[in-house]
Specification:
1 helix; rod-shaped; about 60 residues; mainly alpha
């Protein structure tokens, strides 16, 4: 191999390492985003349950079923 090819191989290896780091970062960001989304869904479900309870209490208060 000539120095030119070795230099190109080294550049390619560096680029592969860089791309692997970027991919790992994207996967980590995706995972964090999914966790945030799950937390938001849980929060919305809780809010919905509270509203349902509030509606039921109002119905009982005014005698409507």
């Amino acid at each position: 191999m000539t120095d030119l090819y070795m230099f190109d191989d080294a550049d390619l290896q560096d680029k592969v390492k860089e791309l692997k780091k970027e991919l790992k970062q994207i996967k980590d960001d995706k995972f964090r985003g999914e966790l945030d989304l799950e937390k938001q869904i849980d929060t919305l479900k809780t809010q919905l349950d509270l509203k349902d309870l509030e509606i039921e209490m109002i119905r009982k208060k005014y005698g409507k079923k």
